[in-house]
Amino acid sequence: MPFWPSPISTRDVAGSGVRPGWPVAMDGRVWWTEDRPDEGGRTVIVRRAADGTRRDLLPAPWCARTRVHEYGGRPYAVTPAGDVVFANLKDQRLYVLSGDGEPEPLTDDGCRYADLLVHDGQVWCVREHHDENGKVTRAVVAIPLDGGETRVWATGCDFYAGPAVSPDGRHLAYVCWDHPRMPWDGTELRVVPLDGSGTAWRVRGGPTESVLAPSWKDDSRLYLVSDASGWWNLYEVGLRGEGARALRPAEEEFTLPPWQLGGMPYAVLPDGRLAVLHGRGDLRLGLLDPGTGTLTDLDLPHTGWNAALAADGTSVIGVGYTATSPRSVVAVDTVTGGHQALERDLTTLPDPAYLPVPEPVLVRRPSADVHAFRYPPHAAATDGTPPYVIFVHGGPTAHADTALDLEKAFLTSRGIGVLDLNYGGSTGYGRAYRDRLKGQWGVVDVEDAIAAAEWLAAQGLADPGRIAIRGGSSGGWTVMAACCRSDVFAGGVSYYGISALAPLAAHTHDFESRYVEWLVGPEDPQVYAAREPLALVDGVSCPMLLLQGLEDPVVPPEQSSAFADALADRGVPCTYLAFEGESHGFRRTETRAAALAAELAFYQQIFS
Fold first, then answer.
1. Cα–Cα dist 432/372, whole Å
2. How far is Cα 496 from Cα 546, in angstroms, rounded to an integer?
3. pLDDT for the residue numbered 231
4. Which of 182, 189, 181, 243 is nearest to 214 (CA)?
5. Judging by beta carbons within 10 Å of its beta carbon (0-12, 13-18, 19+), is residue 449 exposed, middle or buried?
């Protein structure tokens, strides 16, 4: 089939990733980060002054990005004087940028730093150290801004997050957990006295409770997020765990999974109320009275928000989005309800008629209803029953949101529908839905994807002979596995996907090195062979496109290249494209444009 012409080009899509993130607000000023594909994927810090003028703080080649956990997170903090402390990508050292000067190094030990907090003249943060043998250790440390000696305040656990110093400076709260758990499985909130009078104690959490995002209500009580009820809800708790209570019990999520460090899904306002994010799937912004539990949503056009809020007096700053407008740094006046977009990630958009609006759908299965968003093809580009592409998100403990995505519009404007799948194991729908994937990776996700394709065909929405599947990282695993186990797909597209389990566990980064144990189970050659695409490659009968960055520390390139070689040995049509200088997630404009052009050509071929 010839695709319909579209005003959305590969260059439009490739250059659309100038995503703002990680806002900080103080005294009428707002800081945030921007990822810029046209600058080689460089991350800059932007400051907006109280008078509305904005300025890039880091000229090239500086790049504010931390590699803690490889996925990083908020790479900077702001001092009370307005100076910026940031992690530089190239050497991972912390630097201090004062006024209009040049960045000055604060650390020189070759470690990585994340979750930065400035308090009492010190940078409190998570420090990650990699020794010459590859062993990784982490700690919560305090680094004096005047160049004094670094002090370690928490060590011995495999992972740390969320350091928070009490208002009186007497206690430090933090979250910790150990292998093989991930932070959405089980964590502990601990508190340690800062006068050196004793060791840390557990406030809340354990192996089956995910506790996240602590902050201090006052010197003796904390706020936190916990999934003890089966949903990530907000709680208040005493210094030693006494008097715990849910602020607003609800079958909703009040945060997102912490793949990156430094997020805070709520903010404390001067009158004691909390600005909170909550919902199923996408998160809405509302105001919560912690005394009464009353939650009032703000009347805003944004359908979802990043899980990183900042407060400056009665203003709340966040990154909001809709399906037809880009992610924007937004300031919300919690008194009047007014809002102002301070910055957005695109300067121009195509005709709104070409931007698809998602329709939430449920794919009924005997085991559970499966959540998804359907993006129908553009009305002017339909000629009979259209082809569809099923999008499979990565993670897999993550979810597909409804933010504007020009990759989807690129396809729908050409007559190809998109179904964005939140298969079992996705977040946003409670712990039970998340735990559907426990021990079942390569089964539940694959069966949900196949069921989604069959549902599209049964509903008469898609041509059953023209349904493809695409995904990245763990989504690439699902793509490969689904093509191995079913002939329902006309083709599969995998971005930096996983094909073999034992090599992944042996060579991936530390953060996810034990993740396979939860997803599949302890290493067992028979179990692994029954799940992994590389062992099931004989079942593939459709063409495949595999794309891979050659500097990927999360999914080694051999995962894709081995699957490509196995397909070639069996005579299955396969195109393997490898990109120099790209890591886990393509950042450069030229790479993203080339990958999307190859993907479009692939669909043109398999849907003809």
1. 17
2. 7
3. 98
4. 189
5. buried
Measure CA 254 to chain center: 15
Residues 384, 392, 549: CA angle, nearest 5 degrees: 115
CB-based contact 182:515 (threshold 8 Å): yes
Q: Indicate the residue type of 76.
A: Y
Cα distance between residue 116 and residue 75, in whole Å: 7
Reported in sequence order, the residue ranges of 29-103 that DSSP labels E, i.e. its strands, are 29-36, 42-48, 54-56, 76-78, 84-87, 94-97
| Residues in contact with 571: Cβ distance below 8 Å, sequence separation at least 6, in sequence order | none
Q: Which of 104, 99, 109, 219 is nearest to 171 (CA)?
A: 219
CA angle 319, 167, 66 (to 5 degrees): 45
Helices and strands (H and E) in the chain: how many: 10, 37
Query: Would you say 547 and 559 are in contact if contact means Cβ atoms under 8 Å apart?
Result: no
**Which phi and psi angles does 539 have, rounded to 5°?**
-80, -5
Cα dist. 262→22, 116, 166, 175, 217 in Å?
A: 8, 7, 17, 12, 19
Question: Strand pairing of 284-288 and 201-205?
Answer: unpaired
Residue 408: C-alpha distances to residues 378, 418, 452 (Å): 11, 7, 17
CA distance 426 to 417: 22
Residues 6 or more apart whose CB falls under 8 angstroms from that of 50 comprise 27, 28, 29
Rounded to whole angstroms, the Cα distance separating 582 from 547 reads 11
> Using CA atoms, how far apart are residues 587 and 15, in angstroms rounded to an integer?
10
pLDDT at residue 383, rounded to an integer: 66
> At a CB cut-off of 8 Å and minimum separation 6, what does 400 contact?
372, 373, 391, 393, 420, 421, 422, 426
> To which H or E segment does residue 129 belong?
strand 122-130
Outline where DSSP puts E strands in 247-323: 266-268, 274-278, 284-288, 295-297, 304-305, 310-312, 315-321
Residue 537 per-residue DSSP state: G
Q: What is the pLDDT of residue 3?
A: 67
Determine how β-strand 467-472 pairs with β-strand 42-48: unpaired
Q: Helix, strand, or coil here: 480? A: helix
Long-range contacts of 467-470 (CB under 8 A, 24+ apart): 467/387, 467/388, 467/389, 467/390, 468/387, 468/388, 468/389, 468/390, 468/492, 468/493, 468/603, 468/606, 468/607, 469/389, 469/390, 469/392, 469/493, 470/389, 470/390, 470/391, 470/392, 470/494, 470/495, 470/599
Supply the DSSP string of 333-399, one letter for each residue: ETTT--EEEEEES-S----GGGSPPPEEEEE--SS--EEEEEEPPPGGG--SSPPEEEEE-SSSS--
Q: 180: cis peptide before it, omega within 30°?
A: yes
- Parts of the chain with a pLDDT under 70: 1-3, 17, 344-348, 380-383
- Full-prediction pTM beyond 0.85? yes
From the CA atom positions of the chain, what is the Rg in Å? 24
DSSP 5: P
Residue type at position 225: V
In 3-state terms the chain splits into helix, strand, coil percentages (rounded to 5) of 20, 35, 45
Assigned token pair, 19: 């995503």
| pLDDT given at position 322 | 94
User: Helix or strand or coil: residue 239?
Assistant: coil
Torsion, CA 361, CA 366, CA 367, CA 368, rounded to 10: 20
In this structure, the number of other CB atoms found within 10 A of the CB of residue 64 comes to 26
